[in-house]
Please model this.
Amino acid sequence: MTYSNRLSQEAERSLLERLRAREAAALGELYDQLAPWVLGLARRILDDPAEADEVLSDVFVQIWEHIDRHDARRGALTPWVLSIARTRALDALRRRRRWWRKAERWGEAHLAEDGGTLSPPDPGEAGVPGWPVHQEVHAALAGLPEEQRRVVVLAYFEGLTHSEIARRTDQPLGTVKTRLRIAHAKLAEGLKHLKDWRR
Amino acid sequence: MTDWLGMTPRPVAPRAELRAAVLARARGAGRRPRWAAATALVAVVLLVVAGAWWAGVSLQRLGGRVRALETRLAAAQDTMRLLRGPGTRVVQVPVRTAGRLGSVTLFADTVAGRWYVACENLAANRPDEAYQLWFATDAGMVTAALMPMDRSEPMWMALGIPAGVARVTGAAMSIEPRRGSPSPTGPMLFRLNL
Model:
């Protein structure tokens, strides 16, 4: 598998240094690399293009203001940015009045997309930086059994607590925790090379 | 590791015009805190300087007030010592001025040679006149105090018998020209022997 479109370790280190030095062009480069993924994640969580755009903007504001908080020893830049995006999107989601009704609808609607067969990329989509990682992560998630994938999706994309997932799936809390633990272990194993790469 | 799950959804290409807007907002927001910090720093410095100035002025004002009060307290204590002194005699003289009945109370410390004089309900002087208090001595009248009164109001004063003045045997008060007189010339309001 090739990672030609991913940020190399060296390139990421250089980009980080330039961001910390407040080099405006570096933020533009980071945007070009990660904005499609941030927007994709925000849209997946919010299902609202306008709100997703706001999240995208908030994420890059936060990156620019708090780049010093990124600890390269604890992980690569991409997952750090994605974690900011997820947190921001979930915050926006929770602010909505009809959160539960929408979340349930989206949960059902997106479950297949998150773990189903990966459809062929749209023209130009495969050229987006990070596309190979997307395929790997998607494949790792799709490789999980349905009941494990479901709890991961509800926890990650809907931001539900273990108790909320138990209520939503009508499963005992212990079962939910067990499924999440097993699923995370499988994902960690399946995506181990990403972890290795970022070190 | 779960943070990589953020790459599960398909990428969505942002609208082209979004790039400039997002980056401009991010860079603008990034600059704000520095300006805000600088502004806050200046504000804090100004606040500290203003506070220090205000504290200094207040302390100075309070110090002056304390000194004034100390002076008044010392004067009051001195007056009390005079009033309670074993050699002090008290004489109260009714005085009628411009048809009004008032009084002059004299606390005379014959040992220390100091007087405390309190005037009550004396009529106001005419513009060209003043009350003048006299020490009556063996050698004649010696001026003790000139008291021009433009309004009728209580008045009190402490007087020391000047050195070199012959033995004081009494006191007197007369109405004299505004600038005072070396010896009594006007109407005598009272004269008494101590």
